[in-house]
Amino acid sequence: xxxxxRKVAVVGGGIAGLSAAYYLQKQARAEGVLLDxxxxxxxxxxxxxxxxxxxxxxxxxxxxxxxxxxxxxxxELAEELGIGGQxxxxxxxxxxxxxxxxxxxxxxxxxxxxxxEIGPFLVSDLYSWSGKIRAAGDLVLPKSDTSKDQPxxxxxxxxxxxxxxxxxxxxxFTAIYGGDxxxxxxxxxxxxxxxxxxxxxxxxxxxxxxxxxxxxEFSANGLGSSQNFKQGMGTIIEALESHLGTCTVLKxxxxxxxxxxxxxxxxSLNNDSAIVVDEVILALPHTRISPLFxxxxxxxxxxxxxxxxxxxxxxxFAVEPHNCLTENxxxxxxxxxxDVAITSCAAAHSKWPGxxxxxxxxxxxxxxxxxxxxxxxxxxxxxxxxxxxxxxxSLNLKGDPEFTVVSRWKEAxxxxxxxxxxxxxxxxxxxxxxxxxxxxxGSSFEGFGLPGCIEQGKLAAxxxxxxxPLKHFKAEEAI
Length: 479
What we know:
By secondary structure, the chain is an alpha+beta fold. The chain has helices at 15-31, 72-80, 118-123, 129-135, 152-160, 162-177, 186-189, 191-200, 203-209, 215-218, 234-242, 286-289, 348-351, 380-395, 420-434, 450-466, 475-478; strands spanning 6-11, 35-41, 52-55, 58-61, 67-68, 87-89, 94-99, 102-105, 110-111, 114-115, 226-229, 248-251, 255-261, 264-269, 274-277, 279-282, 307-318, 329-334, 342-347, 360-367, 403-414, 438-440. It has three domains: 6-48 and 233-305 and 417-478, FAD/NAD(P)-binding domain, CATH 3.50.50; 78-92 and 227-231 and 306-414, Protoporphyrinogen oxidase, mitochondrial, domain 2 (Polyamine Oxidase, Chain A, domain 2); 107-217, protoporphyrinogen ix oxidase, domain 3 (Orthogonal Bundle), CATH 1.10.3110.10. 33% of the residues lie in helices and 24% in strands. The model is unreliable at 473-479 (pLDDT under 50).
């Protein structure tokens, strides 16, 4: 370690923590700052929720399987890491929604369930005519008289009516957040709805006029086109780890306590050791951060944020000649009035070319959500039976899977309830007042997806560099 180096601890080795460590190194070199960086991860592997299993020619994502193509910071990071050439665009397969045990194609032009193309919406059998007429009310309804946060469900039900919400908008958001849209925050989940309403009055017209949403980009599945890597999302974790340079990485080590010590922070670890640092970046779920500050009476707001538990179940099959989910389908989401336990299913063999061998099918189903989380505690065998029964019912599958991979994610999906931004801002200000050298980042706070976590890591690194009291001349400037 160079004399005078500022000591920084990044706690958490998921995508947010890895990004913070990577950008700390990069920005320190650019600014001529000496840093001594330690990355601490409680598990024996890095990556957090990103876990890719490569098995018998299959690429199986146990956690996140993609990121939105329009998020440029993810693409830029991939290029910097030298893996840009390994990016894989999702197929243009059509998404479906299961309503009352029947699969319906998502109408072209749907943006998070909102119709932006009248023709496909009118001919769709996903809604009754009364439901279509009610949804058209968005074209004439006045905009909300307030810009304050409100439940996402209340907003979309007012604009489009219950049928459009129940049959498509809610299933799409449940697939992402695993939560109840009638409790989730509009501003924290899809603020564009509110912004467009305030600007244009009609959400339907606003989405067409704003230029913010490309109808063709969203028409395949309602969510937007996405990307992965040829060998799975684990590719970016492996690349980040290989670029950590002189960063000290501690795996299988947990921070049990933190306290101030002479203007620095003392981190007590579960291996009976401790480190003293100048800066701390907590890249952890809120459920793991709040216990660290209980003794100080801080961050009580984080306890008000629930987190949903889910399981992912990947099943491999031999291709069947007759299957009601056609070859170009990307998968489906499930409306609450359907008699299945799964909330969504992706046809990975169709969505990601090369992620399944020729002649094989790979389905990845999600099970569990707020209010229905006990299923996650079932045995692997019971979960497999439940999901297989649901896939046979929905896809008319006949054979048995060649193998099944069950992955449990306890308290993995933070629920952004109404007032989320205000609570998080209050918590961050409270933490900054008591511990100005500690930051908290991750999917519980700003930006739910992988690009949002990367951006938080980058911004946290910038704050650390900006607070460095001494900057050293770069070698080229000293000549």
